[in-house]
Structures are given as structure tokens and as C-alpha cells.
């Protein structure tokens, strides 16, 4: 896959951002768009007003810990987040994010990225360029089947595409 580039402004958070912070439980029954209006509300009440399409959430260790609710990555995606970059993720959040087509990337050097920096992420090449600081980073390249999943917009759209092709 070529040409899968995400460019956006950084919204930076710390360690142990759990699913209750990302997607507060009292909004789980709302539509995805309405739920997205409350994304990150527990730590950043203005997040949904500040985030622009393609912006990038950067966080420390254990992003997405807590419950296995799928609404956490869905709220971020529908808020317009183009990708999440963290030191490491809670595994269930990581898998849920990929399943709904939200790129999640592990980068040990997240401490070098600041709130408001502009990043350019090339998923196919495994690179992150901090355009604000003129610094480049590498992350473990995503396997082709994960790039295909992200390009399709998630697991359900990918399966729908494959079923249409097959039948």
C-alpha cells in the first residue's frame, strides 16, 4: 500500500488515559456523532471543539486501559482524530481501534512531541515527521493486512468489500 499519509496537529496527554476518560460511560447510548462531542471530556473538556479532521492524539504509556468498550476508539474517530500515537496501548483498545479503522502507533519517543506540534505520519513507510521540530521518527511498520484494514476504514467495510468482490 502506498500513499496513506495522515497530517495533523497534536493533542498531547499523559499516561494511563483509560476508556472512561476517552468515552465517558454516560454517553455510550448516543449516536456516534453525539458521543464524539464528549470524547476526552474527562481530561480535556474542550477537546471536541479543538480537534480538527486528521488531528493526532499523542499520549504516554497504557493508552486505552480500563474497560473493553469499543466506544472509546469510535468516539475518537468520529471526533475527527486521524491517528493515536502512544508509548504503548492497552491491547484491547489497540485491537478495537484497528477494527474500526483508527490507526494506532507505538512510539517510544512520544516525550519529544509537544501539544500543538504538527505531525505527518506515513503508515506505509513507518515514519512520523514532526514538521514543527523538523524531527523524524520510525515506528514498526504495519503489516500489509493491517494497512489494508485501515485503508478500507475498518474490519466491517473491508469484509463488505471482499464479499462484493467474491460474489
Automatic annotation (TrEMBL):
One of its GO terms (molecular function) is 3-isopropylmalate dehydratase activity. Heterodimer of LeuC and LeuD. InterPro entries: Aconitase/3IPM_dehydase_swvl, AconitaseA/IPMdHydase_ssu_swvl, IPMI_Swivel, LeuD, LeuD_type2/HacB/DmdB. HAMAP family: LeuD_type2. Pathway: Amino-acid biosynthesis; L-leucine biosynthesis; L-leucine from 3-methyl-2-oxobutanoate: step 2/4. This is 3-isopropylmalate dehydratase small subunit. It holds the Pfam family Aconitase_C. Coiled coil: none annotated. Residues 40-108 form the Aconitase A/isopropylmalate dehydratase small subunit swivel domain. It catalyses: (2R,3S)-3-isopropylmalate = (2S)-2-isopropylmalate. Its EC number is 4.2.1.33. The lineage of its organism: Bacteria, Bacillati, Bacillota, Clostridia, Eubacteriales. Belongs to the LeuD family. LeuD type 2 subfamily. It is an enzyme of class 4 (lyase). Catalyzes the isomerization between 2-isopropylmalate and 3-isopropylmalate, via the formation of 2-isopropylmaleate. Gene3D superfamilies: Aconitase, domain 4. Keywords: Amino-acid biosynthesis, Branched-chain amino acid biosynthesis, Leucine biosynthesis, Lyase.
